[in-house]
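Q: My labmate handed me this sequence with no annotations at all. I'd like to see what the chain might look like in three dimensions before we decide whether it's worth expressing. Could you predict it?
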Amino acid sequence: MRTYWDVDRLAVLRLVAMALAPVGDAAAAARLQGDEAAVRRWVGAGEDLVAEARAAVADRLRHVGSFGVEAAAWQARIEAEAARLAGRADPAPWRSAVHAFGYGHVYEQARSRWRLAEALLAAGDRASAAAELRAAAEVATRLGAAPLRSAVTALARRGRLELPGAGRVPDSAAVLTPREAEVLRLLAQGRTNRQIGAELYMSEKTASVHVSRILAKLGAGGRADRGRGPRRRPRPAHPGSGLTRACPVG
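A: Here is what I predict for the chain of 250 residues:
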């Protein structure tokens, strides 16, 4: 990048911010799976990107001068992504990103609200998280940004937050509640109670209670039976949803 842009290369800020999102996702997934080698690999790759962006800012300030609100907004998102990459559920940098994109980039502001809500949930501030998700959902719906709307809805479901259109009302004939269906999905992936709790914003003890109830409903004797199929087939009301590879949020 320095070869082509030399000291004035603030365009890399947007590129780095966009690249950090999937890298942060990969690091977060590796943490949930307890794969420390993968965590180190992804964090290292992300830190290289962050260093490149910070160097671009330093060179610009040293040789050219200050920069405008758009570059400042992408810089704020990079710092928020860097915190997430490091495994810190810190609402402050995402709140700064929300404020920075307030100059007129409504999509990025809504996207930052989604990540802010995620950090607020992890910090236990459910009311503020719900408010941010509602604001993000309204913009995503208005813009027709289906991947972002799906991400917002998925977070609301995982965090058990009320969100118009999230569809959490269970079928009365369902064997499993929506929450149990979400736990079962992770259980089938081999997640531990601690990992399930981290993914769904609940304590390890609460996750264990859910697992016990699910196994009882399915007639399974223990975790080892979960892949053998239940004696009575359940009909989860909401099997859970997430983003597909074809529709990244960015």
